[in-house]
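May I ask you to review the protein record following this short note?
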Amino acid sequence: MYEIELVATDLDGTLLNRDKTVSADDFSTLNSLVGKNIYRVIATGRTLYSLRKIITDDFPVDYIIFSSGAGIINWKTKELIYTKILKKKHVLSVCDVFFENNVDFTIHKKIPKNHRFVFNKSSKRNNDFDNYCNFYKEFAEPLNQRRLNFSQSTQLLAIFPNNIEMFNKVKEQLSDVKVIRATSPVDEDSIWMEIFPENVSKGNALLWLCKKLAVDIKKTIGIGNDYNDEDFLNVTNYSFVVDNAPEEIKQKFSVTDSNKNSGFTKAVEKILNSSL
């Protein structure tokens, strides 16, 4: 009997290659886990809209934790089984901090429409922010500072052009919310600050899912590649980062091969083979 009941993996930079495809080996591994009665879970920062651009309806996965843990979907039935919402008072308090620090940011609607947002652009140059807004321009509109008339939200996103000092300064001024750091999947250099309700994280969402599925957390594998994966890698019992992860993250977890060399498959095989 296999000692593993669930495998969770990040998507961009971990399971996906730079061209947003999955290697043949990794695809085969995902399919093989079904015969071993192992749940397959993706944990990503992407919204449902963004996911559907790269993941097909029949993709070999059982559950997807999306928007950095604010939602979970059963990928087979497409049923939303878990969502979290940021209260209006928290949205307004975060906006105050962002305005004060002249930060470029977005405010997103509630799941499942959190690919739609309003944005506030400062006068300073920020190519990654501009590219993000342009990419989703059909779903974006400028924020009217004179009329902050919106209710609940799923998240806010601030983008810092590789300025960790500013990121930390702003983070210190925020309270009663969850601040998640991620490396931009757009230019792979800028720092993204994701704002969610206090209890939102990939790790908490995975714990909730494991409880729902009656999965023993000691029988789980996790594979990630970035700062926003630490939460769930601290939850899974056997935790890996791919070799293309930042050095700071690689010092905290076991290291598997890079995403372009099927690091997902090699991490899973290492644990499964040792449990036979």
In short: The chain has two domains: 6-84+200-274, 88-196. DSSP finds nine helices and 14 strands in the chain. Residues 88-100 form the longest helix (13 residues). The domain at 88-196 is CATH 3.30.1240.10 (Hypothetical Protein, Haloacid Dehalogenase-like Hydrolase; Chain: A; domain 2).
